[in-house]
Amino acid sequence: MQRRDLLQKLLTVGSAAALSPKLLAAPAVSEGRVQWRMASSFPKSLDTIYGAGEMLANRVSLLTDGKFQIRVFAGNELVPALQVFDSVQNGTVECGHSASYYYVGKNKAFAFDTCLPFGLTARQQTAWYQRGGGRQLIQEFLRPYGVISFAGGNTGAQMGGWYRQPVRSLAELKGLKIRIPGIGGEIMSRIGALPQTIGGADIYPALERGAIDAAEWVGPYDDEKMGFYKVAKYYYFPGWWEAGPQLSFFVNAQAFLKLPRSWQIAFEVAASEAATLMLASYDAQNPQALIRLINQHQVRLMSFPEDMMKAAQKTAFDFYEEQAASNPAFAKLYRSWKPFRRMEGGWFNLAETSLENFMYKNASR
Amino acid sequence: MQRRDLLQKLLTVGSAAALSPKLLAAPAVSEGRVQWRMASSFPKSLDTIYGAGEMLANRVSLLTDGKFQIRVFAGNELVPALQVFDSVQNGTVECGHSASYYYVGKNKAFAFDTCLPFGLTARQQTAWYQRGGGRQLIQEFLRPYGVISFAGGNTGAQMGGWYRQPVRSLAELKGLKIRIPGIGGEIMSRIGALPQTIGGADIYPALERGAIDAAEWVGPYDDEKMGFYKVAKYYYFPGWWEAGPQLSFFVNAQAFLKLPRSWQIAFEVAASEAATLMLASYDAQNPQALIRLINQHQVRLMSFPEDMMKAAQKTAFDFYEEQAASNPAFAKLYRSWKPFRRMEGGWFNLAETSLENFMYKNASR
C-alpha cells in the first residue's frame, strides 16, 4: 500500500469516528486532547523540587489515558524563574510550580502560602492549609489575580546557611553581608545584618571571594550540590525563617475551568501526591547528604546563638503586627494563622517533640 | 415516535458503535464499570480514620467519571474489623482499610508497615516507606499473601493513655492492668505491667469499674469521643509505642491486576491524597480537643517517668534484635528500618526539633 493510500484510509476512519453520535455527545475537550505548559521556578539540578512538576505531569497523563499532557519547563527556560506567577496570571503558561513567597513584592500576604519566619513546620503548614482554613483564605486572596493554587510540596525545615566565620552572638551578626531574600532578609536586616539578594548561580563566587560573608540556600541535599562547603565551613542551624516552606502549583483559573471535571480532579490529586513525595524525598536524602558533608568535607555544624534567635523571633512578630495593621489581606490571613500556630505548638510540644527529644537524646543500640 | 421504535433506534446506534474499530480496540473493562467493596477496620465514629476510605472512594469515582465505584463498609459491618487483611487476601472484598500491625499474630514483621515502639515519626515513616526502600520491602513481604498495599494515612504521635492513678516511676507501673494491644503490650509486659487486649466498646466500662487501671486509645480528638476523661483523669504522654502509626489500604492483587492502568493509578493517587489529609485532620483537630479536655473536663496531663521510658526503649530494641534473630522476614525489614531511623533521628534533631524546641519554649506574643 502506498503511503498516501494508507494516510487516506486513516483519515477516512477518523472522519467516521468523529461523526458518530456517541462522540458528538461528549464534551469536545473530554474526547480531545489538551496540552498544557508548566513553568517551574526551579532548575533541573534541584531535582527534588523540580521533579515534583514532572511527577504531577506524569500522573495526570496516566490518569487521563494520555489525553491531558503537561510539559514542564525549568526556571528561565520559558519565562523568568521568579515571574512564574505572573506568567500563569497572564496566560503565557497554563500552570506553574513556584513558591508564593517569591511574590511578596506584590503583597506580603503571599508569604502565608509558603512560610513566615518562626512559623509552621511542614506538617503544621499542611494541617493549616488543608484542614485549618488556610486553603480557602489563600484561594480568596489569589482570586483577583485569576490564579488558583494547590499545595506543591515542602522542603521541611531548612538549614541556616553557610558562614565563612563563626557567629557567636547577636552582636557578631552586625554588618555581616548575608545572602537571604524575602521576609527572612527583612528580619535579618532589622537585627543588624546586611541581607543580599543574589541569584542561585552567583552565590558561590560571591562567597568565595568574600563579597558576602554568608549565604543560605535550602538544606544538605541541595546545598551539597552547590559546593558551598568549599568556601564556607560553618554550617548553621536552624533555618528559623523557613521552618516548613510550602511550594505551590499555580493554575490559570480560566484554563482550569475549561477542563472536564475528572481532569481537574486528576490535577489536584496528582499535585497532592507530588507534594507528599517531595517532602519524603528531602526527608530521606537530607540525612545522607549531611553525613557526607561532615565526614567527607569537614563541615562544622553550628547552632545560631540564643540571643540572636530571640531577637529575630521578637522582631519577626513585631513585623507581622505592623503588616497586619496596614495590609488588610495580610491581616486576614494572620488572624487565622497566628492562633493556629499557637495551638499547634502546644500540641506538638506535648505529643511529638517530647518523644522525639527523648529518642534523639537516648540513642538505642 | 413509539417508545419501542425509539428503543430500537437506540439499540441500533449502540450496536454500530460497539462494532467500530476504535471501541473494539479499547479494553473491555475500561468501557465498562467496576464496583468494589472496601472493608474498613474502623467504626464511623472514628471519622478521621474511617473518612479516609470514603475520601479515596469519592476521588476514584470522580477520576473515572463514575465508572469505578468503591463502597466502604465500617468495621464489623461486612467482615470482622480485625480480619480485614484476611478478607482482602481471600477475595471476600477487593480492598480494605486497616493497620498492618493488627496482623502481627501472623508475623511480627507486619508491624514495620505501621509502627514499632520508639520508631519513626509520621514524616519519617513516610520518608522510609516512599523514598527509603520501605515500600518495596513491604510489598515483597506481602506478595505471598496475594495482597498489595498503599500507605493509608497516619494519626501522628499518639497519647500514652488514661490512668486512674498517677504513675511516678517504673516501679509504680508493676502489676498495673493496662489496655494496650500488640507489640506495645508486649513491651509493657516485659517492664512489669499486665497488658490487656480489649475491644474499643468494652474499654470504658472496664476502666469505669476498675477492672483495668489504664487504657490507651489514639489521641485527644478520638479519645474525647470515647469519654475516658470521665473515669480516668490522668492523661499520659508520649505514646512511645506509636510515634507515627501508618494505616494501610490493602488490595487483592488479582483484583488490582484486572483494572485498566489508569484506574490502578487513580486508586494509588487517591490513596496518597487521603493519607495526607488524614494526618492533616488529626494535626488540626487534636490541639482543639486537647484544650477542651483540659479546660472543660479538668484532665491532668502527665508525662511518663524517665526511668520507665528508658526501660521501655531498651526492652523494645532487645525485642527487635530477638525477633530479627529468629524471623527472616522481620530481619530483612529491620535491617532497612534501623539505620534509616538512626539517620533520620540525627537530621530531625538538628534541623527540625532544635527550631521547634526554641519556638515552643519561647512563646511569641
What does this structure look like?
Two copies of one chain form a homodimer. Chain A has 365 residues and is α/β, with parallel strands linked by helices. Chain A has a domain at 3-155 and 244-283: Bacterial extracellular solute-binding protein, family 7 (D-Maltodextrin-Binding Protein, domain 2). Helices cover 53% and strands 14% of the residues of chain A. Chain A has 16 helices and eleven strands. The first copy, chain A, has helices at residues 3-19, 21-25, 28-31, 47-63, 84-89, 122-131, 134-142, 170-173, 182-190, 200-208, 220-226, 253-257, 261-297, 306-326, 328-351, 353-361; strands spanning 34-40, 68-73, 95-98, 147-154, 161-163, 177-179, 194-196, 214-215, 234-237, 246-252, 300-303. In chain A, the strands form two sheets. The first copy, chain A, has a six-stranded mixed sheet. In chain A, strand 1, helix 4 (47-63) and strand 2 form a beta-alpha-beta unit. Chain A is globular. The first copy, chain A, starts with a helix and ends with a helix. At the A-B interface, helix 1, helix 4, helix 6, helix 13 and helix 14 of A face helix 1, helix 4, helix 6, helix 13 and helix 14 of B.
